[in-house]
Each structure stands twice: as structure tokens, then as C-alpha cells.
């Protein structure tokens, strides 16, 4: 584990991260997008005249100045960059007044906005330099990088260490036919199968399992004949096994697992449902992803354009893979069905007549590639809904297989 310092610029954005107390095994400059604390405020519409005429304004009175700084990005029914935030005391009203001024004027209609609308604030990108072989969590009083958002891995091809954290972090993917680097954000996370685990794993399943299970994905062992037949030198002793490797056949049926690996999703949303929940009077009471403020994280993962499954939903909802994005008018999250990876026409989106949704079938298995708690988990579809499959908690954990009696009845 290394230590590090995060520097905030005068505009309130993260300007630099310096990692110290580590080696020099990796010193490339990288870019990382942080998702820190959620900051929101409400615009007090009483400051404007209620009529049908367009309103043009740069300054807005808001109900709070907590964690709001110049330079932050504002989203919601207005969008822009914070130029200043000034707080004064109104002796007549006996209250503090917080005035936010944006860099550019905004135009909106009073009648198109209900109540005192919520706007969200977020910092901007920074560039850091990594000089360590392993970095797990960096913390400062201003910004926390979750373990699920900044953890080092090792590339099995080059041996380089790198930060990884899903769609919003530096990510090495060797996916293209010519071996060049891709950027799809899938496969490099815990048990992802595109990087060697730091601790050698001697209990594995043969590569190429149809269900793409974790024991098969992380199998990076090669027989020495593979190297000699190719005319290559054998790797250094540090890369060789120090005990027998137990490799199970990839056709043996795993206990509590699906049959076909169909891809990966960024988030398994197990704490919330898809839709907003309402009480008996029809008032929203939360509990759903839809309608949450932009910038909300789920299981510690940024939600913008992320793929997600809802294992705790009813079957009619849980059978689809979804994608989350922000409605730029309202500043709220919207959840739509994701297109099928192979059958959906290019650029077709949920609602189009030719749209083909990603609907799971019995036996389909999806891998969760990020999250504070659900990273590395695998879910498979059954007649009863999404089921959490057999979990690999640590290296050198033996897989469990199905057992049958002489009559073919599962034990």
C-alpha cells in the first residue's frame, strides 16, 4: 500500500495526485476521473417573476453553500460552471443568502420548472503520476478514492502495473486482433480474466469454459512445451509454479452456476430497485435508481452510462440488462434497457421500433466488473429470476461441482 496527496486547485477541482512512499516500477502519467461526494442544492424560484416569458440569468439564490466551490460543473434544469459562490446575511429575514453565479447566462421558463428544482455539483478531472507497484486506497480530508475505484493490477502481457476501477479509470484491455490496446472497461477488474492475479492460483479450471466462470478466466498457466515449441526462452523462475497445479476439466458442471457466459455489467444494484417507490398517498419515498440526482454512485461506482442489473427486482424487470444516464433537463438519473450485444442494430436505443433489448435467458451468466461489494460476483438467470452464483472469495479456493446419484438425480 502506498500513500498519496491529492491537491485541490483554487477553482475547487482536483488538480493533481502525487503518490509517494512507493517504488519506481511504474511511472507513466495517467488520467483518472474521480467521483467523490454527492453535492446538491435547490434553486429558490421565488427570486424570479412567475410568468410565461423566458428568464435569462447568471446568478441564482440557492438554499445551501455546503461543498460548493468555483469551477465545479452544475447539472440539472440549468447547466454550467460555477464562477463564484457568495454568502451574505439578510438582517430583515434573519437568514443567510447564498448566491451562486455561473460563468455563462442560462435561459429557462418559470412555468416549465416545478417547486425549487435540485441541481448537482461535481468536480473535474485531474492527472496523477503513479510510482508504485501496488496501490489500494488513497485518502485525504477532501477526496476519498474507494478501493473499488483505484486498485492496481498487473498486465499479463507486459507485466506493467496500472490503476483500474471500471469505466472511469485507466484501463489496459488487449482486445483487438492485432494485440493493440482497447478501452471498453471490461475484463481487467477482480477475477476479470485479462490480468494475472498477484497471488498465484493453483486451483483452476481449464481455459475456455462455456460459462466463462471465474476459475477458468483467471487460469494463466502455460506448460513449458508451449514456450519451447514456439522457440521462446522459458520465463524466469519467479513466474513458475512452486506447487502442483490442479486444473479441472472445463466441461464439468459447476454447482450454483449458469451454463453460458454472455458478458459483463458494471453494476449489480442490490440495495435499490429500478423505479422510484411511492407511499399510499402517491408521494415519492425513494428506494429506486430512477429519479436520483446526477452524480449518484451505486455500490461505490459512478452511474453515468453504466450497465446495471437489478437482482432483487421482480422477474419482468430483472430479466433485462439496463443502462443508466442523466436527463440533462432534470438532472435526474434515467434507466433504460441496454441493447443486445450482438442482435441490436447499431445506434438503436430503447423505444426505437428496431430496438432489440438485452434479455437474459435461462442459464445465461453475467459478470459484475466493479463495485465496493459486488465486484467479481456472477449472476445467472433461472425461472425464478437472477441468482447469485458460486462466489470465489480468494486465491486457491477450490470450485464446487454438481453431484448426481446413479439415476441422474442431483444430490
- Total beta strands: 28
Shape: elongated
Which oligomeric form is depicted? Answer: single chain
Sequence of strands across the biggest β-sheet: 4-9-6-7-8-5
Helix content: under 10%
The first-to-last residue Cα distance is 45 Å
Uncertain parts = 21-35, 125-196
Task: Provide the β-strand percentage band.
Answer: 25-35%
Computed CA radius of gyration, to the nearest angstrom = 25 Å
Classify the secondary structure makeup into a structural class: mainly beta
The overall average pLDDT, rounded, is 75
**Sheet having the most strands:** 6 strands, antiparallel
Q: Total number of helical segments?
A: 3
What is the structure about, briefly put?
The chain has 411 residues and is mostly beta strands. Helices cover 3% and strands 32% of the residues.
Overview of this protein structure:
The chain is mainly beta. Helices cover 3% and strands 32% of the residues. It has 3 helices and 28 strands. The chain has helices at 214-217, 224-229, 315-318; strands spanning 3-8, 14-20, 29-32, 39-42, 54-62, 73-75, 80-90, 95-109, 118-122, 126-129, 151-154, 161-164, 173-174, 181-182, 203-205, 246-248, 260-265, 267-268, 277-278, 284-286, 297-298, 301-302, 307-309, 322-327, 332-337, 364-368, 378-382, 385-388. It has a 6-stranded antiparallel sheet with strand order 4-9-6-7-8-5, with no helix packed on it. Strands 1-2-10-3 form a 4-stranded mixed sheet, with no helix packed on it. A 4-stranded mixed sheet has the order 17-26-27-28, with no helix packed on it. A hairpin with a 4-residue loop joins β7 (80-90) and β8 (95-109). It starts with a strand and ends in a 23-residue tail after the last strand.
Amino acid at each position: 500500500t502506498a500513500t498519496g496527496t491529492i491537491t485541490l486547485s483554487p477553482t475547487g477541482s482536483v488538480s493533481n495526485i502525487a503518490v509517494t512512499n512507493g517504488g519506481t516500477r511504474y511511472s507513466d502519467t495517467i488520467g483518472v476521473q474521480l467521483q467523490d461526494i454527492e453535492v446538491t442544492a435547490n434553486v429558490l424560484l421565488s427570486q424570479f417573476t412567475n410568468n410565461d416569458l423566458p428568464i435569462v440569468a447568471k446568478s441564482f439564490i440557492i438554499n445551501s453553500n455546503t461543498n460548493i466551490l468555483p469551477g465545479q460543473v452544475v447539472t440539472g434544469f440549468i447547466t454550467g460552471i460555477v464562477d463564484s459562490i457568495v454568502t451574505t446575511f439578510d438582517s430583515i429575514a434573519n437568514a443567510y443568502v447564498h448566491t451562486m453565479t455561473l460563468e455563462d447566462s442560462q435561459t429557462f421558463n418559470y412555468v416549465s420548472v416545478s417547486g425549487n428544482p435540485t441541481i448537482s455539483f461535481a468536480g473535474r478531472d485531474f492527472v496523477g503520476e503513479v510510482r508504485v507497484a501496488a496501490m489500494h486506497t488513497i485518502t485525504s480530508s477532501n477526496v476519498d478514492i474507494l478501493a473499488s475505484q483505484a486498485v492496481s493490477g498487473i498486465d499479463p502481457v507486459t507485466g506493467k502495473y496500472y490503476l483500474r476501477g471500471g469505466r472511469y479509470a485507466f484501463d489496459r484491455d488487449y482486445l483487438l486482433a492485432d494485440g493493440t490496446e482497447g478501452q471498453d472497461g471490461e475484463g481487467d477488474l477482480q477475477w476479470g480474466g485479462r490480468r494475472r492475479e498477484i497471488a498465484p492460483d493453483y486451483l483452476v479450471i481449464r481455459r475456455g469454459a462455456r460459462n466463462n466462470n471465474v476459475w477458468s478466466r483467471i487460469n494463466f498457466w502455460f506448460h513449458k512445451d508451449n514456450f519451447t515449441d514456439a522457440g521462446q526462452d522459458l520465463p524466469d523462475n519467479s513466474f513458475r509454479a512452486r506447487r502442483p497445479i490442479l486444473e479441472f476439466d472445463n466441461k464439468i458442471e459447476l454447482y450454483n452456476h449458469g451454463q453460458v457466459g454472455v458478458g459483463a455489467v458494471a453494476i449489480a444494484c442490490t440495495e435499490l430497485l429500478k423505479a422510484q417507490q411511492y407511499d399510499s398517498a402517491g408521494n415519492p419515498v425513494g428506494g429506486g435508481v430512477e429519479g436520483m440526482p446526477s452524480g449518484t454512485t451505486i455500490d461505490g461506482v459512478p452511474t453515468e452510462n453504466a450497465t446495471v442489473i437489478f437482482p432483487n427486482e421482480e422477474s419482468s424487470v430483472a430479466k433485462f440488462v439496463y443502462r443508466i444516464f442523466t436527463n440533462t433537463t432534470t438532472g435526474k438519473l434515467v434507466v433504460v434497457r441496454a441493447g443486445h450485444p450482438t442482435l441490436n442494430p447499431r445506434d438503436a436505443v430503447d423505444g426505437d421500433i428496431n430496438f432489440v433489448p438485452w434479455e437474459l435467458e435461462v442459464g445465461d451468466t453475467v459478470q459484475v466488473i466493479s463495485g465496493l461489494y459486488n465486484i467479481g460476483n456472477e449472476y445467472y438467470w433461472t425461472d425464478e429470476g437472477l441468482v447469485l452464483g458460486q462466489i470465489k472469495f480468494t486465491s486457491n479456493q477450490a470450485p464446487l461441482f454438481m453431484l448426481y446419484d446413479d439415476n441422474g438425480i442431483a444430490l
